[in-house]
Design goal:
This protein is of the alpha/beta class. The chain has a single domain, classed as 3-Layer(aba) Sandwich (Rossmann fold), CATH 3.40.50. It is built from ten helices and ten strands. An eight-stranded mixed β-sheet has the order 3-4-2-5-1-7-9-10, with helices on both faces. It has a two-stranded parallel ribbon with strand order 6-8. A hairpin with a 3-residue loop joins strand 3 and strand 4. The radius of gyration is 18 Å and the shape is globular. This is ATP-binding protein. GO terms for molecular function: ATP binding; ATP hydrolysis activity. InterPro entries: CobQ/CobB/MinD/ParA_Nub-bd_dom (IPR002586), CooC (IPR014433), P-loop_NTPase (IPR027417), ParA/MinD_ATPase (IPR050625).
């Protein structure tokens, strides 16, 4: 199983990149899409809104755990509840983290989700995880082993700075990452490409591809329509497909 984690600062369009990756990879692979962003935008971008999230299961579990039989293995029970909310689309499966309604962190839920991912290793060829913006998701260590950490940057040095910080934090936390690469999104012209390329080289970042600003994708976003409606000959779709081929993960 190949695990791909999509990360980056807010506003870079990482969820759109994640959705296009799932769409492209699921043409030939068995794919599990994990929406680890509390806003659950990946499900909407894929045109497959989820009805239950890990957050929902967590809240229900907190309400009922004291009433469960003492001899019941509560971790196994919670784990089975999480497994039950995996939704099956035509070409991929999806599960969403969501957010808890009450106070508390995701530590326990993330531990269970990590266990579920490890149990499902034999069921899928690819796992694509769309994370929330920033660095917090790395410190939770939802995934112990990452084959590809793909950081999405916009056309800015701040986007590349975030990629550099993500790389540094992954090393500090001793997260096992086989490869870290950056993808530049919403690129409008050759000047942007060259400038980003030069900055990435100075920072020793692997810049694996450029995704052009795509009017068709922007129109779908504006209308709240899923990216499954984006045509195969659209600039963004073709560019992401080229990245998949370059990474040899298709």
């Amino acid at each position: 199983m190949t695990t791909i984690v999509i990360s980056g600062k807010g506003g870079t369009g990482k969820t759109n990149i994640a959705a296009l990756l799932v769409r492209i990879l699921s043409e030939n692979k068995l794919v599990l899409a994990i929406d680890a962003d509390p806003d659950t935008n990946l499900a909407d971008a894929l045109g497959f809104p989820v009805t239950k999230t890990v957050g929902d299961i967590r809240e229900g579990f907190l309400d009922e755990k004291d009433e469960l039989a003492p001899e019941l293995d509560k971790q196994s029970y919670f784990e089975s509840r999480v497994m039950s909310i995996i939704e099956e689309a035509d070409r991929f499966d999806i599960i969403a983290m969501g957010r808890p309604e009450g106070p508390g962190c995701y530590c326990y839920a993330n531990n269970i989700l990590r266990a579920v991912i490890e149990k499902l290793e034999g069921n899928y060829e690819m796992v694509v995880i769309d994370t929330e913006a920033g660095l917090e998701h790395l410190s939770r260590r939802t995934v112990r082993d990452i084959d590809l950490l793909l950081v999405v940057s916009d056309v800015s040095k701040r986007g590349l700075d975030t990629a550099d910080r993500i790389r540094t934090l992954a090393n500090e936390l001793n997260i096992r990452v086989k490869r870290i690469a950056v993808i530049a999104n919403k690129v409008r012209n050759e000047h942007d490409r060259e400038k980003l390329k030069n900055m990435a080289e100075k920072m020793n970042l692997e810049l694996i591809g450029f995704i052009p600003f795509d009017e068709g994708l922007a129109a779908l976003d504006l209308d709240g329509l899923p990216l499954t409606q984006l045509k195969d000959d659209s600039p963004a779709f073709k560019a992401v497909k080229e990245v998949v081929e370059r990474l040899n993960i298709g």
